[in-house]
Design a protein that fits this description.
Order of helices and strands of chain B: EEHEEEHHHH
Largest sheet of chain B: 5 strands, mixed
CATH architecture of the largest domain in chain B: Roll
Distance between the termini of chain A: 63 Å
Oligomer: heterodimer
Largest sheet of chain A: 7 strands, mixed
Distance between the termini of chain B: 45 Å
Structural class of chain B: alpha+beta
CATH architecture of the largest domain in chain A: 2-Layer Sandwich
Helix content of chain A: 25-40%
Helix content of chain B: 25-40%
Low-confidence stretches of chain A: none
Mean pLDDT of chain A: 95
Low-confidence stretches of chain B: 1-9
């Protein structure tokens, strides 16, 4: 039995966050700090003819002005590979490709002086034709966003920033022998993260030549690598400090121009510099998620078993690649994850347009793919007269299966998830009742729907691995040094739990020192869904190492073997006796007998230990991940027939996330994902016209509010293997559960009113056009 | 952008001395007329527990108590708060002991990234002091102006209900 693992432990950073003591990047104040502001392109596509900063430089209070000329010739990208070389200058060089692209930056004594200086920078642009729609951009006669595109493209398309293709099985035969073929186009809108803490960076280049950086991010080591590279500095001269992060959801992983500018402005002035983005800047110019169009063709047999699929995915990655090429690669994985597909013909295209660059957002493509697949699954079930649960059970992957990329899903509780979710919600009864209700004359109709998804647990993208150090203080308490950055998910808490469990001590006996690139070992970061698995295992190894040393020391005291000793209440007991010594005494003995060694343990972990590099972005081949989480989620909705308003009333998540190390934190992750999915399903939509964002505020971009809280419940499916041996080893839990519930909501609306949405969001206008077509105003 | 309205007005800005009673301490401060209560709390008194999420009164992260009322500090001019009693998140844990709401937020898992937590807790504090037996609907209504992107609000509302059940 475990003492702390698997228990509802409140987070260790809770207290500093509820008292206001927790310092976020926006709260960092340094003496003599300057204010940085960024000048942005007013045009979506233009050649920069001339920039004159001389007036701005002479203004009172202005300390430095930088443009692309100061930024060397450095380019950066979310992906930097031979196939996809970095394509974005940190400050625009000769050309701007989206409205809002960074052209210059200033540092001044205060905000007023900085803004006045921006006004005094004269830029002459020569406007170029721009393209915003992704299918327009693919046409041969479209304006060219970049002179180069994917090298091996053999189709007559333009502006292709990335392409991923992968096929397996006999697709032709699958479609020839099919009982039923469905072909549908599904479209998802542009949604955005809405992290509450604005993007912010503080930089201080000190007199020793060290650059200190605080920045609102998702991993300090990845930021350090990108920033050092952009600044042409050795990584060892860049120290990214920890600051608490006010939410990220994928939106803070890339290197941003403002981070480079803030750093360079500090280097130019020798003074600390702070940049904080305004909320409308974030809505208008920063990186959002990515809209996706999927053409999905599916062949099934009489029983609804999948025989084969053809899929074409298109996304607009914006004016630079950003994570667009990763998005179309991941989409393949999210297609093949949960269901057995014998044959697939897949191609994904990431298309340049003159729009702001796109980033990952919680799920990174999975919500959009699962919305398409799960919608179509229900449509097929209906045509064949099979119920939605049965068709999913017939296609769900079983434990021990091997995915088309070679990854083994050694344990997969998907069929249990589906069965339990259906049972707990009385799914089939409600589904039939609601279907009958479609024809009744009621103003509010009820619907229930299910969605299924799976998500990988970390993969290989720099820094790939994590290391950790656990060391004893002389008083028997411990310190954990980890590079992990807690962005709200509870990373520090869960890592602390792992050490406490191993050493048999209380959470309060451990101090966590985290996320400082100078004082903690390298860490994978809070992204690609790998932290708790990769860093958690590194921390576990470090804790086991100190435990081993402590036991050895104590065993000498008892003149016994370490296997005869056990830990309890910061004491070491000789098993089956009441003989014991304190941790302090065992530590002191170890120091004395080992040349001063105070007991320091180190641990390290890398997923996919046999793989040299991560999977191919070009063809999705190569190992992806050690394990996959699975879920089946059910949504219950009410649709007001008069107004078209969709209310998500209840959500249930049955999931196999390995072993939930801390259910309180896991539930928090699920609730947040359910809420984010409901927003995406029903209201959230970044509306752009000709490169301009028309709703750049929380008033106009609506996110779920407290009055829209969704009753959320959970069923942990812990597979036999995890029950037996994996109590420390968890799987993904932080982003996979946006997808199933998003699909479940759209399926529930279809169950309520018979309206099958193929385009998100399901806002009141779209639903009303179905429920109340006469009342169009 | 927020700064647009104030460009070039620097020289004409009027300054005056005001008195703010913040967390039971009196401060005499020289402020410009256009400075918000939020600017003064964060930049002059270094009470950075009060957060700015939007600067335009839409997210609720800057909520403070002014004479017991939950107020958005980004929408209130500092000069209009002169002489008033202000409570920020730093003033809630009297003598280092967490308030019941602060304690419940930690215990119930109502905090994730924590950026909305100060404003959320102050909105809830104002509600329960006026209406100690607030229903779930009343709690949801009172928090409608406080955006949280992490929790889906479930555990926040549960935490407030827990405190309500204890006091009512």
């Amino acid at each position: 039995m475990t003492r702390l693992i698997g228990k509802r432990i409140p987070r260790i950073d809770g207290t500093v966050k509820v008292t206001g003591e927790a310092k976020y990047t926006v709260d960092i104040q340094l003496p003599g700090m300057l204010c940085a502001k960024v000048l942005r392109s007013p045009l979506p596509h233009a050649r920069i003819v001339h920039i004159d900063t001389s007036r701005a430089e002479k203004m009172a209070g202005v300390k430095a002005v930088i443009t692309g000329r100061d930024a060397w010739d450095v380019r950066h990208g979310f992906v930097e590979t031979p196939r996809y070389p970095a394509d974005q200058y940190v400050l625009a060089n000769d050309r701007v490709r989206y409205l809002g692209e960074e052209v210059a930056a200033v540092a001044a004594v205060d905000e007023d002086a900085a803004l006045a200086a921006l006004d005094a920078i004269d830029v002459v642009y020569e406007e170029l034709p721009a393209v915003f729609d992704l299918f327009e951009a693919m046409k041969q006669d479209a304006p060219e966003v970049h002179p180069v595109q994917v090298p091996d493209l053999d189709e007559p398309y333009k502006n292709i920033g990335g392409m991923c293709a992968n096929s397996f099985g006999d697709v032709g035969e699958a479609f020839r022998s099919a009982y039923l073929v469905r072909k549908d186009r599904f479209e998802s809108q542009l949604r955005t993260h809405c992290y509450l803490e604005p993007q912010a960076t503080v930089a201080h280049y000190d007199s020793t030549g060290m650059l200190h950086v605080w920045t609102s991010s998702m991993g300090t080591f990845r930021k350090r690598m990108h920033l050092a590279r952009a600044l042409k500095m050795p990584e060892s001269r860049v120290r990214v400090h920890k600051s608490w992060v006010g939410g990220a959801f994928g939106g803070k992983i890339d290197l941003f121009s403002h981070e480079f500018c803030t750093a360079l402005l500090s280097m130019k002035t020798g003074r600390p510099v702070r940049f904080v983005a305004e909320r409308d800047e974030i809505f208008s110019y920063f990186r959002h998620s990515q809209p996706m169009v999927i053409d999905l063709e599916t062949a099934v047999d009489r029983q609804g078993r999948l025989l084969g699929q053809r899929a074409r995915c298109y996304n607009s990655c914006g004016a630079y690649r950003g994570s667009g090429v990763v998005f179309i690669f991941l989409a393949w994985g999210f297609l093949v994850g949960p269901y057995r597909i014998p044959a697939l013909d897949y191609a994904g295209y990431s298309v340049y347009t003159n729009s702001p660059v796109r980033a990952p957002q919680r799920g990174h493509g999975a919500p959009k793919v699962r919305f398409a697949v799960e919608s179509q699954m229900d449509m097929i079930a209906e045509e064949l007269g099979i119920d939605p649960i049965e068709i999913r059970m017939r296609n769900a992957r079983q434990k021990g299966e091997v995915l088309p990329n070679g990854d083994s899903i050694r344990n997969a509780g998907l069929t249990e998830c589906i069965a339990e979710a259906a049972r707990a919600t009385d799914f089939q009864r409600k589904y039939s009742e609601n279907t009958r209700g479609q024809n009744e004359k009621s103003t509010v109709k009820k619907g229930i729907g299910m969605g299924v998804s799976s998500y990988f647990t970390g993969t290989l993208i720099y820094p790939n691995n994590s290391a950790a150090i656990v060391l004893f203080n002389d008083d028997g308490t411990l310190k954990l040094l980890t590079g992990a950055l807690d962005i709200g998910q509870g990373a520090e808490t869960v890592l602390c739990q792992i050490v406490a469990e191993e050493l048999g001590v209380d959470m309060q006996d451990i101090r966590v020192v985290a996320a400082d690139t100078e004082t903690t070992p390298v860490d994978i970061g809070s992204w690609i869904s790998g932290l708790t698995y990769v860093t958690g295992n590194a921390v576990k190894k470090a804790a086991q190492e100190v435990k081993k040393m402590l036991l050895l020391s104590a065993a000498k005291e008892f003149e016994a073997g370490p296997e005869d000793c056990e830990l309890r209440d910061r004491r070491i007991y000789l098993k089956e006796t009441d003989k014991s010594i304190s941790f302090e005494r065992a530590i002191a003995r170890h120091i004395r007998e080992n040349g001063g060694d105070p007991i320091i343990g180190r641990g390290n972990f890398r997923g996919l230990k046999d793989a040299a590099i991560g999977p191919s972005l070009k063809n999705a081949k190569g190992a992806w991940s050690d394990s996959y989480a699975f879920d089946a989620q059910v949504a219950e909705v009410e649709v007001d027939m008069r107004t078209g308003k969709v209310t998500v009333v209840r959500a249930l998540t049955a999931h196999d996330c390995g072993f939930p190390l801390n259910p309180l934190l896991v539930e928090g992750q699920i609730d947040g994902q359910v809420s984010m999915a409901a927003g995406q399903a029903t209201v959230e939509d970044v509306i752009m016209k000709n490169g301009v964002t028309l709703n750049p505020s929380f008033l106009d971009y609506k996110v779920p509010l407290a009055t829209e809280m969704i009753e959320s419940s959970y069923i942990d499916i812990i597979t036999e293997q995890y029950e037996r041996e994996g109590r420390f080893i968890t799987k993904e839990v932080g982003e996979g559960y946006v997808s199933g519930i998003l699909a479940a909501i759209t399926n529930a609306v279809a169950n309520a009113v018979g309206f099958r949405a193929k385009k998100l969001p399901l806002n009141v206008d779209s639903v009303k056009s179905f429920t109340n077509p006469g009342d169009s105003e | 952008m927020k700064g647009d309205a104030v460009k070039g007005e620097r020289k004409q800005a009027t300054r005056r001395v005001i008195t703010l009673v913040v967390n039971e301490e009196e401060h005499a401060l020289m402020v410009e007329d256009r400075e918000t209560l939020l600017d003064v709390l964060r930049d002059k008194l270094f009470l950075t527990g009060t957060k700015e999420g939007c600067g335009t009164g839409e997210c609720g992260a800057c909520t403070v108590l002014v004479d017991g009322q939950a107020i958005l500090a980004c929408l209130m001019l500092a000069i209009n708060a002169s002489g008033k009693k202000i409570t920020t998140i730093e003033g809630l844990a009297a003598g280092g002991k967490l308030s019941p709401l602060q304690h419940a937020f930690v215990e119930q898992g109502a905090v994730q990234c924590g950026f909305c937590s100060p404003g959320m807790i102050l909105s809830a504090t104002a509600l329960l002091s006026k209406n100690p037996s607030a229903t779930r609907e009343e709690i949801q209504k009172a928090l409608e102006g406080n955006i949280c992107r992490c929790t889906g609000y479930n555990k926040i509302i549960e935490a407030i209900e827990k405190v309500r059940d204890k006091i009512s």
